[in-house]
Amino acid sequence: MTSKPTPQSLSDHLIQTLDHYFMTLEEQDACNLHEMVIQQVEKPLIEYVLGKTEGNQTKTANMLGINRNTLRKKIVQYAIGIEQN
């Protein structure tokens, strides 16, 4: 019986991605790294949870642990399309 490989944590994936990012920078300096990472993670997270809740913003906000008004602001900020049922 072969054992399944242990899935990597989100942190492990982030570190691999950052390693790759810094390797591709060459001579350039990194800037606004925190904002870049947050945006790259936050948008797909919101989209994913919205899909799981079939677009229910109240449920999505609760699952994410944020205020519904904050969620709505982020939906606009990231231009996330909301399908109307």
Mean pLDDT: 90
What structural class do you assign from the helix and strand content? mainly alpha
Main pleated sheet: none
Our Rg estimate from Cα atoms comes to 17 Å
End-to-end distance? 46 Å
Number of strands: 0
Number of helices: 4
The topology string of helices and strands comes to: HHHH
General shape: flat
Helix amount, in percent? 55-70%
Q: Per DSSP, what share of the residues sits in E-state strands of 2 or more residues?
A: under 5%
The residue ranges in which pLDDT falls below 50 over 5 or more consecutive positions are none
Describe the structure.
The N and C termini lie far apart (46 Å). The radius of gyration is 17 Å and the shape is flat. It has a domain of 30 residues. 6% of the residues are buried. With 85 residues, the protein is mainly α. It is 64% helix and 0% strand.
What's the quick description here?
By secondary structure, this protein is an all-alpha fold.
Describe the secondary-structure layout:
Blueprint: H1 10-25, H2 33-52, H3 57-64, H4 68-77
Helix pairs in contact: 2-3, 3-4
